[in-house]
C-alpha cells in the first residue's frame, strides 16, 4: 500500500495471473477515469459503456462520463437497479444487448459505476462480451470498495422454485483497474454505509493469517471516525481493508477447491450463514416489515455473529469470541439478533446451496481467535444450530 502525498490517492496493487492492477482510493479519483482508461486499454478505444446504479446522484455519473469524453472516448450509459432480484440473467442480457447495440469492440471498456451488484453484473457482462472485454470497477459504496470490486468475482443470482440463490452463475474476470472515489460515499444513506463496515469487521477476523494483524487495533481505534465518514480517515481505512483482500486473492485467485492451506475461501467468513438469511426477503434488521429485506452487509454482520457462536460451540475459539464479535458489530450499528427467525430447516436448506458445499456437505469458515480462521468440513448439526441460536432476540 502506498501513498505519495497527504491528499494523494492510496494505491494498493493486486497481482494476478493476468498481471497486476492497482486499486486507487481517495477523493476525486473518478475524475481520472478517462486518462486511466486511455492508458490501460491498449487497443484504439472509441467508445465505452458505463453501467451505473440507477439511484446514483447525477453529478457522480456526469463526472465519469465527462472524464471519458475528455480523452475522446464516447460513453454509452446503461442503468441498473441495484437489488438482489435485479441481479439476474435478465439484467445481464440487457447489458449485453446494450453493448452490442453500441458496437463495443473487444478492446472497448466496460465501466462499472456503483455498488457491488452493479460491479458483479457489469463485470460478468464484460467477461462474456466477445469472450472478454476490459472492465474498470468504480465502486461508490463502502462495501464495494473494500470487497466486491477487488478480486475479479462476477456473478448473477439464480431463482429456483421461488427461492433466490446468491451468485450461483458467474466467472472470475479481473478488472484492469479499480478507482474508489471516497467523495461518492457522501451520497450513501446511513444504512447502506454501515453495511459496508460488516466486511471490514470480517477482515479483522482473518487478517492475522495474512500478515495484517495491525488491522484489528486500527479498526477498533478508528471506527467512530469512520462512522462519521471523516474524509481524513476513510481513504486509509479502505486501503488497509483492500490490502487484506489483495493478499488473499494473490495467494488463491480462483478459490482452488483442492487447496490444502487457507485460501480465498476464508473471505466467505460469515457468508454461508448470511446467504441463508438473504434467501428470506421478509427479514429486516429491526423486525419492521418496512425495513425488509436485510442488506448484504447486515446479513454478513449476522453471519459473523453466528460463525462466532458456532466456533465457541465447537470449542475451537476462546469463550469470549461471540461477545467480542457482537460488540464490534453493535458498535458499527449493525444487527446482532433478529426479531423473527425463519424455520431452521429452511435456513439449512438454503445453506446447502452455498458454493463451498462439497459432496452435499457444508463447509464453514469459522474464527479461531482474533485475526485467525479455519475451515470446518461437514460440521455437526448442533454447531450450525448454535449459530442460528445466536440470532434469537432475548
Kindly list the characteristics that best describe this protein.
394 residues; alpha/beta; Rossmann fold; Dehydroquinate synthase-like, alpha domain; 2 domains; eight-stranded mixed sheet; two-stranded antiparallel ribbon; 39% helix; 20% strand
Explained architecture:
- With 394 residues, the chain is an alpha/beta fold.
- The chain folds into 2 domains: 2-188, Rossmann fold, CATH 3.40.50.1970; 204-389, Up-down Bundle (Dehydroquinate synthase-like, alpha domain).
- It has 13 helices and 12 strands.
- The strands form 3 sheets. It has an 8-stranded mixed sheet, sandwiched between helices. It has a two-stranded antiparallel sheet with strand order 8-9.
- β6, α4 (116-128) and β7 (135-139) form a beta-alpha-beta unit.
- The longest helix is centred in the C-terminal third of the chain and has 19 residues, at 296-314.
- The N and C termini lie far apart (43 Å).
- The model has no long low-confidence stretch (mean pLDDT 95).
Based on secondary structure, the structural category is alpha/beta
- Please estimate the helix content: 25-40%
What is the string of SSEs from the N terminus onward? Answer: EEEHEHEHEHEHEEEHHHHHHHEEH
CATH fold-level assignment of the largest domain: Rossmann fold
For the record, the count of structural domains works out to 2
Low-confidence stretches: none
Number of DSSP strands? Answer: 12
How confident overall, as mean pLDDT?
A: 95
User: Which sheet architecture does the biggest sheet show?
Assistant: 8 strands, mixed
Rg, rounded, reads 20 Å
Major β-sheet strand ordering: 1-2-3-10-7-6-4-5
Query: What's the number of helices?
Result: 13
Distance between the termini: 43 Å
Shape: globular
Please report which band the strand proportion falls in: under 5%, 5-15%, 15-25%, 25-35%, 35-45% or over 45%: 15-25%
The CATH class of the largest domain turns out to be Alpha Beta
CATH architecture of the largest domain: 3-Layer(aba) Sandwich
Amino acid at each position: 500500500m502506498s501513498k505519495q502525498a497527504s491528499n494523494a490517492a492510496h494505491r494498493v496493487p493486486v497481482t494476478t495471473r493476468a498481471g497486476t492492477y492497482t486499486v486507487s482510493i481517495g477523493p476525486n479519483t473518478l475524475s481520472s477515469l478517462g486518462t486511466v482508461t486511455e492508458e490501460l486499454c491498449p487497443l484504439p478505444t472509441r467508445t465505452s459503456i458505463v453501467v451505473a446504479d440507477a439511484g446514483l446522484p447525477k453529478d457522480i455519473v456526469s463526472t465519469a462520463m465527462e472524464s471519458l469524453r475528455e480523452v475522446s472516448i464516447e460513453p454509452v450509459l446503461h442503468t441498473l437497479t441495484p437489488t438482489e432480484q435485479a441481479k439476474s440473467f435478465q439484467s445481464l442480457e440487457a447489458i449485453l444487448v446494450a453493448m452490442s447495440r453500441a458496437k463495443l469492440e473487444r478492446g472497448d471498456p466496460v465501466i462499472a459505476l456503483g455498488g457491488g451488484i452493479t460491479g458483479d453484473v457489469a463485470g460478468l457482462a464484460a467477461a462474456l462480451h466477445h469472450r472478454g472485454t476490459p472492465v474498470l470497477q468504480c465502486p461508490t459504496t463502502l462495501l464495494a470498495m473494500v470487497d466486491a470490486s477487488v478480486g475479479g468475482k462476477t456473478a448473477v443470482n439464480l431463482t429456483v422454485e421461488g427461492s433466490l440463490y446468491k451468485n450461483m452463475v458467474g466467472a472470475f474476470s479481473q478488472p484492469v483497474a479499480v478507482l474508489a472515489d471516497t467523495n461518492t460515499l457522501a451520497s450513501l444513506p446511513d444504512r447502506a454505509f454501515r453495511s459496508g463496515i460488516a466486511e471490514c469487521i470480517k477482515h479483522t477476523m482473518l487478517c492475522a493469517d495474512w500478515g495484517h494483524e495491525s488491522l484489528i487495533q486500527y479498526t477498533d481505534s478508528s471506527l467512530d471516525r469512520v462512522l462519521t465518514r471523516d474524509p481524513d480517515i476513510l481513504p486509509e481505512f479502505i486501503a488497509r481493508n483492500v490490502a487484506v483482500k489483495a493478499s488473499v486473492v494473490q495467494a488463491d485467485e480462483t478459490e482452488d477447491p483442492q487447496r490444502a492451506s487457507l485460501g480465498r475461501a476464508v473471505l466467505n467468513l460469515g457468508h454461508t450463514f448470511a446467504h441463508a438469511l438473504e434467501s428470506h426477503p421478509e427479514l429486516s434488521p429491526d423486525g419492521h416489515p418496512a425495513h425488509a429485506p436485510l442488506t448484504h452487509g447486515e446479513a454478513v454482520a449476522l453471519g459473523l455473529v453466528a460463525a462466532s457462536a458456532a466456533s465457541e460451540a465447537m470449542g475451537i475459539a476462546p469463550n469470549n469470541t461471540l461477545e467480542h464479535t457482537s460488540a464490534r458489530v453493535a458498535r458499527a450499528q449493525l444487527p446482532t439478533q433478529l426479531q423473527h427467525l425463519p424455520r431452521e430447516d429452511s435456513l439449512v436448506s438454503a445453506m446447502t446451496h452455498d458454493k463451498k458445499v462439497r459432496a452435499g456437505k457444508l463447509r464453514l469458515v469459522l474464527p479461531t481467535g482474533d485475526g485467525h480462521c479455519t475451515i470446518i468440513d461437514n460440521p455437526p448439526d448442533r454447531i450450525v444450530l448454535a449459530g442460528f441460536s445466536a440470532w434469537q432476540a432475548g
